[in-house]
Amino acid sequence: MSSMCTDDFEKLSTIGSVSSQGIEITERNSEKPDSMRVASFLEYNAGTQHKEAFVSLWDFAGQFVYYATHQLFFSPRSIYLLVLNLEDDLDRSLEEWYLDLKGKTSIEVKGGVDFWLKSIFTYARGIVPTFPKIILVGTHFDQMQESGDQRYKIAHGYFDKIRTIFQGTPLAYNISKHEFLLSNTDPNDPKIDRLRDEIICIAREYPNWGEKMPAKWIELQQNLEDIRRQGKSIMSLEHLRSIVQRVASPIEDEEQLMLFLRAHHEMGTYIYFSEADHLNKFIILEPQWIVSAFRYLIGAIEFKAKYGPLQKQWVNFIETGRLEYNLAENIWRGDEESHFFENTDIIFLFLEKLDIIARASVISDDGMSSTPLKYYYVPSLLKEAPQKEIMQARNFSGCLNTPVLCFKFKEDFLPPAIFNRIIAICLGKFC
After folding, report:
1. Cβ proximity of 66 and 95 under 8 Å
2. What's this model's pTM, rounded to 2 decimal places?
3. DSSP single-letter state for residue 271
4. Tell me, what DSSP letter sits at residue 57?
5. Which DSSP symbol is given to 405?
6. Is 83 helix (H, G, I), strand (E, B) or coil?
């Protein structure tokens, strides 16, 4: 179950004004009675006199380029807080937010809200309707120009407009009926405590609250947490098996070990793809590590100044999204502490599996086979708008028109990962 600990609610006052890069994870301990401890996605002994639960606080970045990584952290076990600046007009344009098929480079705030909630609904929807829950939180309440009851009226009206967007859709039932208006200047705002209580109350309603885990699982997970805290982000399956044999109560059955890994993959503790060739030999102990590798890759703004021979590749990467293997190697070589460089092949496999990048390939004329090329595309970096002539064209002299392929998605929402994959395939075949 993901949630927040009491101490971390102080940070809510700054979420509306500080820009996050990638995904930030806060880990703290709180030994207060009946409180939460931020550590990892693991819950145990719920429903007994032991009141402690393991949770994580995840802060998602708003930059469009990072949206491809968010699916990695969406889970039906999570509680989501949509944090909005109450001074931000819902019709205000968000520049450089995204690029659609018509070359539009901005979207209104309400469009961004629609995107966020539909992303949660798409990637985190579980088998139980109305879950996961989404709580609406407004910041900068103290800075609104109105005063007294009028301020509350305007603020609640702000959220009424958001609820109207999803009226009549299944997503409307995922949004919590309570909303919270917070100050950005008072860390002792009593409404923060009420928000904390609301999260705990909602958490207890979750269908997986009270799940019991085998004691052997807990012991192994605690061993892996110790290893992760020592700075190890990735581990081979063989290494894991050797650790299993050293714990006091080892998981002796291989099927149970696979079940342990699949359960923690679903909860977001680790990343493990049991059915994927090559990837099923590795466990990512720190999911943030994959995001950090991607962030380091696209954020190497000083790269072209440091590595002259690869400057052309860097410029091409930033402008077209085309990523050469040796360019990534040289960028990742710059962060020795994170061990990206020596795990280049594994990182590429995971990024591709997660649809964050896509391997360029050439499809045969009969469409029955494809040949992988020696480079990748990062679709979230593509910024070039299509030419007006192409968008308006109906027939070109001497050219053949291709059939039009259309997809209709439920809730009128196209998951970015699917769009990115289609773009990468087309680039590999036609560019």
Report:
1. no
2. 0.73
3. B
4. E
5. P
6. strand
